[in-house]
Design a protein that fits this description.
The protein folds into 2 domains: 7-156 and 271-335, D-Maltodextrin-Binding Protein, domain 2 (3-Layer(aba) Sandwich); 159-261, D-Maltodextrin-Binding Protein, domain 2 (3-Layer(aba) Sandwich), CATH 3.40.190. It has helices at residues 7-12, 16-30, 66-81, 95-104, 114-121, 131-142, 194-198, 203-209, 230-239, 253-256, 280-285, 288-296, 302-313, 319-329; strands at residues 42-44, 57-63, 85-92, 109-113, 147-149, 159-164, 190-192, 225-227, 244-248, 259-261, 274-279, 333-335. Strand 2, helix 3 and strand 3 (85-92) form a beta-alpha-beta unit. Helix 3 (66-81) packs across helix 14, helix 5 packs across helix 6 (131-142) and helix 13 (302-313) packs antiparallel against helix 14. The termini are far apart. It has 337 residues and is an alpha/beta fold. It contains 14 helices and 12 strands.
């Protein structure tokens, strides 16, 4: 059984400055700007101050891409409304550094993806498409690492295949991936990134799972597959360079470009549900945290995240403002008086 060890945080806080410095250098090297700790002032909504919390310190972290920045700000706002004095350590460059902050107790809360933990952190190779089963499998292993997974959200930011909506009728009304095999070979054209093209849970196994052979004349000939940078796939699919593009299911460009996501009806892609992840000693000290985030998780759907991501990536809004307005619209928080 996991036994929280609050002393671990004291012993390892001395390395936080080094990690932050490294993160800052990495951000500078990537040409990115570090996240500020800005969030609008918060008033209570359905999330109210925990009795006796007395401004206890809590550190929130996130990775450094749009969705994670929004989720990080949601966590900051929730913890602030609950009465914590929050240190905002979002915008950490990369999954492994963010993970290390939670493992070491240098951060207390992170929104993380079940599939990422299962395949990347925990070294598993068997993918689990069932979302609840995937969450439980991750929970059962990670609790031994002193990391506690809260209730998962419906949002499942996994891989998918998308088609430009105006082409759906031309392709026989296609809506699910099992229908790819019924298309003429010349219509089975794909835009994918190089990593997806070669990864063990990527293009070739996906095609095989759906009864198609990569490179076969009656399957998907190599000439039918175009390799693109990740960002270019969306616009290439929309422009008709291919019929089917590899996308992430919560990307705001799906809605912005009016793409239609095909149903993975035979369950090939692993589940990547997002869930709040807590440093175990912190949760033992403040068990109310789990209930606070459990209020939020059910409202985080693919459709919601696509809208929020679009507001940042397409409309140019700040992640903190987007998170604040959404939290307020859901009644979790209010404007500060």
């Amino acid at each position: 059984m996991f036994r929280p060890n609050p002393g671990a945080r004291v012993r390892r806080l001395s390395t936080m400055a080094g990690l932050i410095t490294v993160a800052g250098l990495a951000l500078s090297g990537c040409g990115l700007q570090p996240a500020t700790s800005y969030v609008p002032a918060v008033g209570p909504g359905s999330i109210v101050p925990i009795p006796g919390i007395d401004n206890a310190e809590l550190t929130v972290t996130s990775k450094n891409y749009t969705e994670q920045l929004i989720l990080g700000k949601i966590a900051v706002l929730a913890a602030t409304a609950a009465g914590f004095s929050v240190r905002d350590l979002s915008n950490v460059p990369g999954s492994q550094p963010a993970r290390e902050l939670i493992l070491s107790g240098q951060a207390d809360v992170l929104w993380e993806y079940t599939g990422t933990a299962w395949l990347t952190y925990l070294g598993q190779t068997r993918t689990i498409p069932d979302q609840q089963e995937q969450w439980q499998a991750v929970y059962d292993i990670d609790v031994k690492n002193g990391v506690i997974w809260g209730a998962p959200a419906p949002m499942n930011n996994t891989y998918a295949m998308a088609v430009r909506t105006e082409a759906v009728a031309e392709l026989g009304g296609i809506s699910k991936m099992s229908e790819l095999a019924s298309l003429p070979v010349e219509d089975r054209t794909f835009c994918v990134e190089a990593e997806f093209n070669s990864r063990p849970d990527g293009m070739n196994p996906m095609l095989a799972h759906y009864g198609l052979t990569r490179g076969a004349p009656d399957g998907v000939p190599d000439a039918n597959v175009g390799l693109y940078d990740t960002g270019a796939i969306y616009s290439a699919t929309d422009a008709g360079a291919c019929n089917f593009g590899e996308v992430f299911t919560t990307d705001g460009r799906i809605d912005a470009l009016n793409l239609t996501v095909l149903d993975d009806d035979l369950g090939f892609f692993p589940a990547y549900n997002v869930a709040p992840v807590f440093y175990g000693a912190t949760l033992a000290e403040h068990p109310q945290l789990e209930g606070i985030f459990a209020q939020i998780s059910p409202s985080l759907t693919n459709e919601v995240l696509r809208t929020l991501n679009r507001q940042v990536d397409v409309d140019g809004q700040e992640p903190a403002d987007v998170a604040f307005e959404w939290m307020k619209s859901e009644g979790f928080i209010t404007d500060a008086e």
